[in-house]
Amino acid sequence: METINFTRGVPANESFPIEEVVEAAQAILRTQGAAMMQYGPALGFQPLREWLAEWQGVRVEQILTGNGSLQLIEFLCLHLLKPGDVVFTESPTYDRTLTLLRRHGARIVGIPLEPDGPAIVALEKALAATPPKLFYVIPDFQNPAGATCSGEKRRRLVELAERHGFLLVEDAPYRLLRYRGREEPTLYRLAPGRVLHMSSFTKLIAPGVRTGFMVGEPELIARLAKVAEDTYISPGYVAQGITYEWCRRGLLPPQVERLKKLYAPRLDACLGAIDRYMPDAVATRPDGGFFISLTLPEGTSTTAVRLEAARLGLNLADGLAFFPEGGGERFLRLPFCALSPAEIDEGIRRLAESVRASR
Ligand SMILES: Cc1ncc(COP(=O)(O)O)c(C=O)c1O
What we know:
Layout: E1 4-6, H1 18-37, H2 46-56, E2 63-66, H3 69-80, E3 86-91, H4 95-103, E4 107-114, E5 117-118, H5 120-129, E6 134-137, H6 151-164, E7 167-171, H7 187-190, E8 195-200, E9 212-215, H8 218-232, H9 237-248, H10 252-277, E10 282-283, E11 291-295, H11 302-311, E12 314-316, E13 331-335, H12 341-358
The structure holds pyridoxal-5'-phosphate.
Pyridoxal-5'-phosphate (PLP) is lined by residues 9, 68-70, 94, 138, 143, 171, 173, 200, 202, 207, 212.
């Protein structure tokens, strides 16, 4: 019996455009090798920043690149947060961001996440108690829940950010991976002065390129670049040069199409298997991204289900780490992109059996 891993949100190995990257690397090293090998501004490899600025429709001073987007969050924390500062996140949210926020002593308030975005009534209540320094949100195909924020809630979020004077940090690495349905505007587009937008090439090329970026007000970007400089002088220009050349060649749009073709059937396999084997499950039904999440029936705990699942050759991740203030005992994240449709079907079948056995 093959073990099936529904644990980590990683891209599929077969999605990596290795030949394209080889060619881009050769070409850019031959033409810009010295610049890529040398130290340079902490803001990032200038041609990549210029390409990103044009793509995002902003000025180049508004672009900071870094070694993955997670480290850019760390720079933001280093710059903005003092111990005891209040930060809002969705609950659940990306566990690694919670780790960074905690490391900086932030007082994290979790705003319950609904299938169409953060619960606005709970948010208003939390704002009335203490407005935060920042609210970290993942509006598109959220990690871990799979939820996407509705247009209406996006407008409410930026209104509230304006009214209460906090920064919205919009982390959007899954945004381009929409397999169906209509795109909502970014928070950044709705209120550029209130939002720091961020994304990454991790899910578009490969995690190995470690290239993420932020789009924001030039002053904030310059301050974050100073933190970056004091940390690593300059980011990995070799990876950034290759990423730039790959983008310049127009390879991003066809890669996004290939990813959609690869991943959409995996999402469908996941949803179909849930309908077939767990018809009573409360599941998110995303239109894209990497994750579906399940809330197990009352009286079941993820911990007990994980033990049963391990016996059946199914590895599941603990849901607890995604919740800033506790809860999540019945929450399960199912990352579906790195599994074949057949593995997904068998994995959900084993999951249904584990849930029955754990009751
Ligand atoms: C919401 C979110 N933000 C950030 C990251 C980290 O991305 P990077 O590899 O660019 O550091 C991830 C990776 O899974 C993620 O899901």
